[in-house]
Amino acid sequence: GTDYIALSNALFQNIKNKKIVRGGSTISMQVIKMINNQNDATFRRKLKDIFKARILEANYSKQYILELYFNNLFFGHGAIGIESAARTFYGTELSKLSEQQVCCLAVLPRNPTYYDPFVNSENCAKRAAELYNSIFNKKISQNDFAAFLPKKTYSYPFEAPHYIRYYEQQYKTQNKSQQLPYKVTLSIDLELQNKAETLVNQGIEEANSSRISNASLLLIENKTGKPIAWVGSANFFDFEHNGQIDGVLVNNQPGSSMKPFLYALALDTKDSQGYNLFSPSSILADIPSEFGEEKLYIPSNFNNRYNGPVRFRIALASSLNIPAVSLLNTLGVPEYLNKLYDLGFTSLRKTGEAADLGLALGAGEVPLIELVPAFSVFARDGKDFNNKQIFSTDTARLICSILSDKGARALGFGYTQTFETDYPSIFKTGTSNQYQNIIALGATKDYSIGVWMGNFNGETVVGKTGSSLPAWIAKNLFDYILEGKTITKEMDFPEPENWVKQKICSLSGLPAGPNCPASVYEYLPKSNQSEYMLKHEQTETCNWHISDNDSQEQTLYPPEYQQWARKLRSDINIDYGEIPLQIETPKNNAIFYFSSLNKDRQAVSVEVYGGSEEILFVNYDDEPYATVSRPFSFQLPVEKGSHKCTVYCGDEIQEISFIVK
Fold first, then answer.
1. How far is residue 1's CA from residue 62's CA, in Å, rounded to a whole number?
2. CA nearest neighbour of 187 among 230, 130, 124
3. For the whole model, what pTM was predicted?
4. Residue 472: how many CB atoms within 10 A of its CB?
5. What secondary structure, in 3-state letters, does 26-68 show?
6. Euclidean distance between CA atoms 353 and 350, whole angstroms
7. Mean pLDDT of successive 10-residue stretches along the chain, which has 661 residues
8. Tell me, what DSSP letter sits at residue 19?
9. How far is the C-alpha of 246 from the C-alpha of 255, rounded, in Å?
10. Which residues touch 373 (CB under 8 Å, ≥6 apart)?
11. Which residues does 506 contact at the CB level (< 8 Å), separation at least 6?
């Protein structure tokens, strides 16, 4: 494995020329150099090569060592190994090359730059011809040089680069840094992958005016959870827009796309007696609201409108913000976070607690690789891919019913909707609070998809709120998958088993009564319906719509809508009934900040509900302050320090404290 005469001659020539002109290495020594990946031209390295070459020779045949050599030679243009070179330069297998082409390849390793057949074609062809002539005892003229030279480099398949890189990293992690097997079969469907990439790029072109430079897409199979299409960015080689970043793995605020998980938790939550706290007919208040005490949280809807009483179904389908925050405030942030952990949102262990009530609006940061499998739970009857029941089967089916309801989406999105399909499907979109990310989630019975659009540098997007563009991409990929297929009943999402549709008042959500002007059909629990309604609504039929002795119909709203009605709907009547006295705003221990700007116009607004009398007496810092008639609304001065407000209505008393800094 070592030619000492050649090494001695090389040493002599190098000393004579005062530079390295020869190496004197044998094939075995060059194989050692390739294996160690060392190119430092030192005497010490040469000694190591000699020693290891002798070990190599002692353990392997000449044929095997020569094979190692051929398979590790560098030929230029990224080609390593003779088979790779045959494919790179001539687009075929080594065994199918002509004698002239083999001679060309034999020349390249001597100096891949000097003999580059595309850059220095004359050098390459001339040297290859000399080699050919010496082997076959022929005379090749310059006119025949073309027979040696390749025409262009072979374009290797470059599919799903982000996923392949992710797969390789996962494999090495799970197998303690071992290399991938020679052959790996992926779950990626190449046809759908290419279609997904096309749609992503079309979406980017469409979003040109919205300052959106990138997008990511993940399509998985609901049966197994395996990825079918994985698009990490719009263009892997777009270095200006960080195209090699894998957006499927990047944490982003998902916005309202997280709301289905919160509403599903609400449907699954029961009281101490085993009754559902919420149903699709439950009424949620979409009114100006304050949450928290020392840390006050005041959410608003994306269109800055307030819709008053809204049914649970409409609140989710139309993606209203205030009802979602109210739900989370009722259920509790820790309970919701634990459910999200069960769903696989490990990323929220870092940002979830800090987001607090903002979790209802997707304030935590999660990647598509967690978001899409979690969303697929609804199409899988509430089970994750470990067959763990995350939500009850009926809850998952109710969520599918809501997210596929075009009519319920109309309040938030209108009747012309990007994600309307001819086949059963569910969709949920989301926009982060600074419009840095727009997201769409979708699912059929067989597939779930997530699409993110935005900028990897965090730059905000411009234009429409909501997520019509990613929804368009998701919907069009589903259309492509189902194109030409017959829509059958097997594609429908199944009906919940323990719920039955009943006619309810479209305003109150209660079973429709004789005075209700509009009604719809909605799911109510099959068993103990009357008992359920009596417990939660104190009536079996709607009591919001009444008729007096003169047959005059009238609508009475619960007292929590008095502020909303006074400011936005003066035509609405409030039914105070026998609601206990309560101070709705401000919250106890609230903190306000005094400003010298417009100080004469500053005030602490107080809103009080309920009470058995029509008159309210107000004490401010234990001193009589005001007498107020219904509706109980008044203002207190903004004065620095700690303050107390006490209200009296008949025999009822309520008190709060607040601080002005």
1. 9
2. 230
3. 0.81
4. 18
5. CHHHHHHHHHHCCCCCCHHHHHHHHHHHHHHHHHCCHHHHHHH
6. 8
7. 78 74 78 76 76 88 92 90 93 92 94 93 92 88 84 86 94 82 90 97 86 94 98 92 95 94 96 88 91 74 86 96 95 96 95 91 94 98 97 98 92 78 94 82 97 87 65 96 93 94 92 91 77 53 80 82 81 81 88 81 89 93 94 91 95 93 88
8. S
9. 20
10. 220, 225, 344, 384, 385, 448
11. 311, 516, 518, 519, 520
Is there a contact between 500 and 523 (Cβ–Cβ < 8 Å)?
A: yes
How many whole angstroms separate alpha carbon 390 and alpha carbon 374?
10
Query: Is the separation of the CB atoms in 214 and 456 below 8 Å?
Result: yes
Q: What are the CA-CA distances from residue 547 to residues 55, 215, 643 (Å)?
A: 103, 56, 45
Q: Tokens 């009605």 map to which residue? A: 565
Q: How far is it, in rounded angstroms, from Cα 71 to Cα 60?
A: 16
Whole-angstrom Cα distance, residue 364 to residue 327? 17
Kindly report the number of other CB atoms within 10 A of residue 512's CB atom.
20
Three-class SS state of 229: strand
- For tokens 């060392």, the residue is 38
- CB-count burial class (<10 Å; 0-12, 13-18, 19+) for 463: middle
Give 227's strand partners. Answer: 220
Secondary structure tally for the chain: helices H, strands E: 20, 22
